[in-house]
Records
---
Amino acid sequence: MLNLTSAFDSPRWIEITSGLWILLLFALGIALNGLTMGVYVKYPKMVNVTSFFTVAIITNGLLSSALGYIPVIIAEFSGHWLVHMSEDSCIAEALIVYYFGCSSMFLHVCIAYIRYQGIVALPISNAPVEKWRVALAFGACQLLSLVLAVSPLLGLGAYGLEAHGTSCGLAWNDRSRAGLGYLILIGTVCYVFPVTFMCVCYVQIVKTVSAGLCTLIL
């Protein structure tokens, strides 16, 4: 049963404006991600250990735009998700968007680490990043994202309509022990840890680059 978290009805002009805005985001997401992916397809030699995770993020953006925006646009122009779509489609849309969102966040962590390795660590260790490590990291990102996205279907957390009733996501108002535990878990795993890790990596990169520039100038 869908967790109905809708709290209020939006004015019609807000729903239409939101629908047009999301339609624009959909078009831009498909066009920009599609063009960028086209460059990599045309020039496959550009795909290497360093750019692999960038290509994966572009793929996530393309699939998320293609699969996640269309039902939301329909719901916005209809006034409510359940006017033309089912509860199951709401859960499916939430799962897809959440999965690709988690995956992209974890892939950004991998990019930060590879840049850290290339700028801060590798000049010292002189050890390249092996392809098997990249494949392992990519697989771990996808597996963790899948586990987190599927967990609400297994009773840990829940998916539901968001406040305005035209899009779906996690049931943020779930105050059960399992629901709160899941929200704390994903807040830590999907936000606090990735952002902290990336900040540490990029701070070290900036320090290293700044020190190198100072050495060249002096």
Note: DSSP finds five helices and three strands in the chain.
---
Amino acid sequence: MLSQQCLQQRRKFAVAFLAFIFILAAVDTAEAGKKEKPEKKVKKSDCGEWQWSVCVPTSGDCGLGTREGTRTGAECKQTMKTQRCKIPCNWKKQFGAECKYQFQAWGECDLNTALKTRTGSLKRALHNADCQKTVTISKPCGKLTKPKPQESKKKKKEGKKQEKMLD
């Protein structure tokens, strides 16, 4: 009786072991059947870098627009393309619509020219635009008036009280 139980256990173990070996073989052949993907070849192109023109607004002097790009190369499929772009409307356009500057405070009024000036340093250039590193702008000083001498507050209050008493 004991030997029959032993034989049954051995058979169960042998079946489990054979099943395990069969599964391992199936997984190994499935992996071997997969073809290894060749690494993507890096194309060495003789195309040059894209050179972009300035952004030209569709209407007005700011907002949405387009720019054209060109590149050179004997085997380039594409040598020209158009790209959408945007010119912010709050930028100082006199220095180029693609150049943004950080300005200092306005200087004192020059009495000889009646102008005040301030300097701006380049903060950001869009699309590798050719921008000046520093710019200077001027504007008229405006009216130069002397401040009026003010009456003291006590005198004003007293005057109002007297007016009320008269009414």
Note: The mean pLDDT is 78.
---
Amino acid sequence: MAARRPRSASDHDSDDDSYEVLDLTEYARRHHWWNRLFGRNSGPVVEKYSVATQIVMGGVTGWCAGFLFQKVGKLAATAVGGGFLLLQIASHSGYVQVDWKRVEKDVNKAKKQLKKRANKAAPEINTLIEESTEFIKQNIVVSSGFVGGFLLGLAS
């Protein structure tokens, strides 16, 4: 974690902000309430295992996630495709009349609303991406095992 360093009068002239790095392990040693609340070994649980164990744990969870993603994706694609097929058959049979002008107007209206909302949500999405990237960097061994397992789960 980085904390902003107090600025002196001479620092106000420079435009770059300086940060100092705080070591949480040293902070935890100095503050006993932290140890009472989280325990003495309160680091990431995965780091306590060997590299091979971390890769296997990431691989197994990745494979499970990939396998479920594949099955749910197939089910969703089948449902959506079947719905379109039935709608097309009903349209050709004369059961359904589609007002394409109204559909086009509604789609354009939805596009405009999505663009407005996307511009407002950009900071939150950027923050989420930055946090995810930092998590992956800190847990690179488990993350690489997860990605490999996920791809295997998709393929099986």
Note: Helices lie at 24-30, 32-38, 51-93, 100-138, 140-155.
---
Amino acid sequence: MLFSSAFTAAALLAAQAAAHGAVTSYVIGGTTYPGYEGFSPSSGPKTIQRQWPDYNPTTSISDKKVMCNGGTSADLNASVAAGSKVRAVYKQWTHQQGPVMVWMYKCKGDFKSCDGSGVNWFKIDQEGMTAPPLSGNSWGTAKVYKNLYWESTIPKSLAAGNYLIRHELLALHQANAPQFYAECAQLIVTGSGTSVPSGAFLAKIPGYAAQSDPGVTVDTYGSKATTYTCPGPAVWTG
């Protein structure tokens, strides 16, 4: 009986770990920056990624863990020229219904004091459902499932400075039970740009939408809706 219980617990843990995913590395300007790997990484190489405790999802949009999956600091940062691409790489991803949203946050000073607080987050990229039905695989997360990466362009006009970049996958495969997967990394944006978003492009995390938002709480198998709108503000392109 003890053996059976231990085996069952181990099997459940393995199944749980196999069901989720996280950003495990970044490719920026031809350089690969390792991130954290494994279901619950206790340590890893020095990295630009803010360390996360595990890749269990956050299930409440108001939970502070939704910001960077609990990550608060990183040892390194990566330089990226405005107008160039950032690729987030996933070792695994298993869900095909839900949007991908890529956010940035301009730090007021150095990274140690950059906590992501306030109404300063903005989107630079997103993809929700591109064709019905909701239960199909015409979603941003389905592309991550297929390719195991997501690539975005830093707006060319973005002002230089220290930024956090946040890759968020919102899994909607369970009816009215959203799962948020988000990781953050530290970037130094270079270039001659002078623009920063303002007004309706800015949001607070947590707090960019309500749990009841139709883009958050949706029954992808029971709903007859033929369109989908990603939660939060519109994408800022510069």
Note: Residues 1-18 have pLDDT under 50 and may be disordered.
